[in-house]
Amino acid sequence: MLRGQMMDQPLLISSLIAHADRCHPDTEIVSRTVEGPIHRYTYADAHARSRALAQALARLGVKPGDRVGTLAWNGYRHLELYYAVSGMGAVIHTINPRLFPDQLAYIVNHAEDAYVFFDLTFAPLVEKLAPHCKGVRGWVAMTDAAHLPDIPGVKPLCHEALLAAERGDYEWPRLDEWTASGLCYTSGTTGNPKGVLYSHRSTVLHAYAASLPDVFGASARETILPVVPMFHVNAWGVPYLATMNGCKLVFPGPALDGKSLYELFEAEKVTLTAGVPTVWLGLLAHMKANALRFSTLRRAVVGGSAAPPAMIRQFDEEFGVDCQHAWGMTEMSPLGTLLTLKGKHERLPADERFALRCKQGRTIYGVEMKIVDGGGRALPHDGKAFGDLHVRGPWITSGYFKGEGGNVLRDGWFPTGDVATIDADGFMQITDRSKDVIKSGGEWISSIDLENIAVAHPAIAEAAVIGVAHPKWDERPVVVAVKKPGAEVTRAALLAFYEGKVAKWMIPDDVIFVAELPHTATGKLSKLTLREQFRDYRLPSA
Ligand code: ADP
User: Fold this and answer.
1) Known active-site residue 186
2) What kind of fold does domain 435-533 have according to CATH?
3) Nearest protein CA to atom 17 of ligand 1, as residue
4) Which of 14, 116, 408, 444 has CA 20 to 30 A from 181's CA?
5) Could you report the per-residue pLDDT of 144-199, keeping only the tens digit for each?
6) Residue 273 annotated to the active site
7) What is the Cα–Cα distance from 96 to 50, expressed in whole angstroms?
8) pTM of the complete model
């Protein structure tokens, strides 16, 4: 082998914030805080404070490889933790505060978090967790001395006081790029949550890929507001690609309702945003009710669960925003696909172009995908054949933290648990999660397809479709739906709405109207809960 002669320079997360400081020192980071006011500062400030925070962590005794937990919203102090913890060689463990307390305690203990940083919102949660998390050496309130909360049984440390004690002349260590940098637990619909351990190398490579023109298209001219939480797979990489490219960052803090989001989008001239479908339901409903328009927002990346075509169309036609469907998972850092059309698609008839835009997206360089049948044989990429989706690449996990779940790879590929089609241009479409597919009389029915039709009905706000046991067909689909406020639709009318849109035998057998649907901690429909709720439901057709 003739070895290349390029420098051996590791890909390190600290280099991202150092770059932002050098090249975009005056670019702003704006945060809505838990304490109330809007906070604003620059990349130069963020870098200086991250260095001071790394110094403070070292003084607290945090060693390379130690885990530091966060229970926090999207905000500037959380960003500083992203860089300080990973930059010093420790591991930032972003915890989803919406999980149940016993799941949270399990996660904190399994990760062996040395310290946990928390936003004031979560002080009551810390009070509940602390007695069950004896390994945690300190709980740090992400606030100043004036707002330090009283928590019975816990003497919280103060984020600002820790920073104030440091000189901030910390030098980022030159780490091996394979050093672990972050830890994220998947919500795990069955069994205990499992940890995915990212590295500096995987995180920086993912940030490069996420920045590409056909992915986030991140440039220094963009203002990005990640609605997706920094505890949901690293806010899909936004905190890293923003520093890499010098984008202005806007953090919504705890205020994720339609009105608060809309005001922040407008006040800060946001051009690009990202989040799960459920948050957009609230925002778009608020805008429609008040006849509001976006003046600067141009693109919205929507993923985490299937974006209904009706939502993609509404973003586009009513609000002039390009809604870009994306797919990924915790195990993939998370990005696997994102939807941008190719030049040749511009000539397609509008309905064909729209059908393409409803797919989950085009494969990003760095991620290889294949679909396989039950026997593990590869299926064609013809946009028709569907099978279990397997992936591999440098930002895809090779196994879970502490070996949980054993060897998860199949011949070097990671099985995603999704069922999908892939076409010759690399556009991937999720048919379903394998556990949500409805198996009726030996045929498969996509719950996502049936949900998309339900929410396209003008009276339906949200819908989930689940399989319910049937004596003859094994399972039959049932729609569980929430009506829009003030809107009316009957069971028969909703079922009639399916006619001509899917094959007759795929039309659901029943409709159940409910006031609210259950969601998981990451804002997805919890079909597991629904299936349990309706386990003994007797179909009229049974
Ligand atoms: P959790 O299930 O713990 O919330 P993830 O957030 O990693 O974990 O979820 C990943 C899963 O979410 C994917 O395997 C897929 O089933 C689903 N998903 C993500 N994006 C989409 C999308 N655009 N369309 C359909 N499903 C999606």
Assistant:
1) yes
2) GMP Synthetase; Chain A, domain 3 (3.30.300)
3) 305
4) 408
5) 999 999 999 999 999 999 999 999 999 999 999 999 999 999 976 567 899 999 99
6) no
7) 22
8) 0.94
